[in-house]
Amino acid sequence: MKQKMMILLLGTTGLVFVSPAFSSDLTTEVEDVPPVTVGVYARHDGGKIVYNYRVTNNSQLNVTAVTIGRDDQNDGNPDNDVNELVELPAGYTSKLGIPSTSSNSPTGWRVSALAPEDTEAHAIAWGVMNEHSPQIRTGHTDSKMRISLDEPDNNYLTAHALVTFGDTNPETLTVPLEQLDVTPPDLTVILTPDTVAAQDNKFVAIKASFILKDDYDRMPEIKLESITSNEILSYGDIRDASFGLDDRYFRVLAASQGMGGRTYTVTYSATDASGNQAIAIATVLVTAAAADSQPETSNTDTISQ
């Protein structure tokens, strides 16, 4: 009962997690093509992970509420309904709810976290505030539902959405979330300088810059993955490199052991907030040293994490 009372605070939508028998308006091809789809993509913004939801209503009824991370199994049995989300919105408190800085709602709607005290899982519910609030009408799409987290939670991308139709005698339908962003970023790595002359016991500072594009995320997460060489490396030939982090500056020993020169191969990754990852490499060539100044070799050929 406590959970249902929290839901009713959303307004007059009757947001009860009981799935009555579907009307004929909702049963058309439910298993193959749901009459409502809820798409999702994520992006990085100001140190937060922002999940964006797009609701398309192709049913014959108006949508009055959408709850992310709630699965009622579409079986009419409230006893096996489950919440699926782990991370709460940024700044959330049980007393004050979700801060306005951590959410966005359609005009006339409000958002709340449905967080029962007896479980760690929760759901995020959007619903109309009253009978005068605009609903998502038949044939319309709404893309104004957003929620921000301090830490990523993949459940916000892969869980279910419980859709409520009507504000009197409401009906509900659970549909899986559809990931809108399935394309990795486009990543190009540029190393400066990319060619250096061999110098005895000299280290050269290398700067990495990027050409980075993504369909949805303006700030994919960049990480230095590894630095390898075509020649055997000694411990310390690569310095100031922080693998697994967004490290764009490091130093390499300007040494070559053979007439072909030494090539450092540097690998970076770019991962968007929806989890799509791209890998790109660039090289630094150390030109061949003079024959009388060849450094000794060691037994390590890769420096990476």
Provide an overview of this structure:
With 305 residues, the chain is mainly β. The chain is 4% helix and 43% strand. The chain is elongated. Residues 1-25 and 291-305 have low confidence and may be disordered.
Q: What are the SSEs and their pairings?
A:
Elements: H1 2-8, E1 36-45, E2 48-57, E3 63-68, E4 70-71, E5 82-83, E6 103-104, E7 109-114, E8 123-128, E9 141-149, H2 155-158, E10 160-165, E11 171-176, E12 178-179, E13 186-192, E14 195-196, E15 203-213, E16 221-233, E17 238-239, E18 249-253, E19 262-271, E20 277-286, E21 300-304
Parallel strand pairs: 1-12, 14-20
Antiparallel strand pairs: 1-2, 2-9, 3-8, 3-10, 4-5, 6-9, 7-8, 10-11, 13-15, 15-18, 16-19, 16-21, 17-18, 19-20
Give a brief outline of the structure.
This protein is mainly beta and 305 residues long. The chain is built from two helices and 21 strands.
Key structural traits:
21 strands, 305 residues, five-stranded antiparallel β-sheet, disordered N terminus, five-stranded mixed β-sheet, disordered C terminus, single chain, mainly beta, 2 helices
